[in-house]
Amino acid sequence: MTSARFHDIHSGTRLLFIVELIVLTAIYLVGLEADRTYFPDAIPKYWEGKLVLHFALFVFPIQLSILSVGLYNRKMRETFRGVIRRMFVSIALGYFISTAIYGLTPAEVLPGNVREWSCLAAFISLVLIRYMAVTLRYQHMGRQRVLILGAGERASIIERRMRRRADRVSFDLVGFVKMRGDAEKGIESDPIIELNTSLEAYVFENKVDEIVVASDERRSNLPVDSLFHCKLHGVEITDILDFIERETGQIAVNLIYPSWVIYSNGFQSNNYLRNAFDWLFNGVLAIFLLAITWPFMLLTAILIKIEDGLRSPVFYSQERIGLNGRPFKIVKFRSMTTDAEKNGAQMATKGDARVTRVGNFIRKYRIDELPQLYNVLRGEMGFVGPRPERPYFVRELVLSIPYYNQRHNVKPGLTGWAQLKYPYGSTEEDSLEKLKFDLYYIKHRSFLLDLLILVRTLEIVIFGKGI
Q1: Quick one: pLDDT at residue 255?
Q2: Which of 93, 211, 220, 347 could pair covalently with 65 via S-S, beta carbons 3.0-4.6 A apart?
Q3: What is the distance between the alpha carbons of residues 425 and 294, in angstroms, rounded to a whole number?
Q4: Ranges for the Bacterial sugar transferase domain (predicted)?
Q5: Domains identified in the chain and CATH numbers
């Protein structure tokens, strides 16, 4: 059976999380005992009842920071030197978070040097754990042997979408079985299997854990009896749409058929309790962020004025399409020249010459998005959701991309699943790819997924992965 997972957090990642939690706990306890032994007056007895609180303020900010910088992403493509750099950032960020909590709450800082020495020990220990985990190939834990039933046009999407090693860390592709009715042009590099025996015999002989049904023509062509026999003996049978959704975090729009949407889980109707909670969560978080970021916003406004002159506008407002296709005015810091659209509406591109020097910096670190907190407070946007697009482009994309209008079934957001999973792009093909991730988010939308996206967005901000 395919191992359960929470979106892109797999069994190997969960084990790594638990091991690191145990190590951080041990470091904290050893640090306390060392301070008691060598500095007996450093931790007075009245602290004894609060040690659990201090433990939480040491461990959880670090592990939350590790998640935020992408170190719990099993498909992360990073050198080990990059892993060390990210681990240093996560330890420093965890220390900063706990220090901020101490400063903003009545909790008193733990006396002595327990936190500082523990952070140093945590950095060294966690780097060693990562080295051992990579050496032991923890990414392959729970790896499944997968056989694709089909070798035509539909099956070729798996080959194209998951051709890199990082895309296949959770499964070992046995091969593609050629089926009657498959298109001639299909699989190019992966092995194509011509069965000389029954499907179930091949499956059991090659220890296949999962069969993915991806044939071009299913009617009267599927070996139903063999699939039924395999299912009874514990082999997972998966539709290609569900397989791509699970492994890539996107919905293959070009493969969708109406019955799949009707019978699949997700795409729920309105949940009024969730909507009310969303509004409260987004509003409180927006006020909190405004209280923290207003100095950066003021500095940004001053820098824009210095670069472009006192009479130049700091903000720009632009019409976007929101929930249920309703237009609204989005507010951002101006990052382009004042005559950026003298030749008409056009999508921003990577390395766009219209972007100013200040604009390039604030776009890279997403500072230009901060004024959209106003849109969040007005209820026009949330923190998480598909990015809102301009009406001119929406009209074009609705005509050329199937299901594009479905992204307007939820509020647009400051960040989203597509922003985490797909690099910046400005073409129609990029819009199609982003839609696949947006539909995945709409189908699986939950408070926990929103929290995961918000935490993972810190990686984009910290490492400047904006455009």
Answers
A1: 85
A2: 93
A3: 30
A4: 280-462
A5: 11-139 (no CATH), 143-248 (3.40.50.720), 272-462 (no CATH)
Q: Is the confidence at residue 47, as pLDDT, over 80?
A: no
Handedness of CA 123, 127, 128, 133 (dihedral sign): positive
In angstroms, how far is CA 201 from the centroid of its own chain? Answer: 39
Q: Is 193 helix (H, G, I), strand (E, B) or coil?
A: strand
Q: State mean pLDDT over 272-287.
A: 83
**Residue 131, pLDDT above cutoff 50:** yes
pLDDT above 60: residue 232: yes
* β-bridge partners, 315: 333
Tokens of 448: 């926990």
DSSP category for residue 403? T
> What confidence tier does 350 reach under pLDDT thresholds 50, 70, 90?
low
Residue pLDDT, tens place only, 249-268: 999 888 887 777 777 776 66
Backbone angles phi, psi at 334, to 5 degrees: -70, 125
Question: Is the Cβ–Cβ distance between 123 and 91 less than 8 Å?
Answer: yes
Edge-first strand listing for the sheet containing 192-193? 192-193, 171-177, 144-149, 210-213, 236-239
Residue 125: exposure state from Cβ atoms within 10 A (0-12, 13-18, ≥19): middle
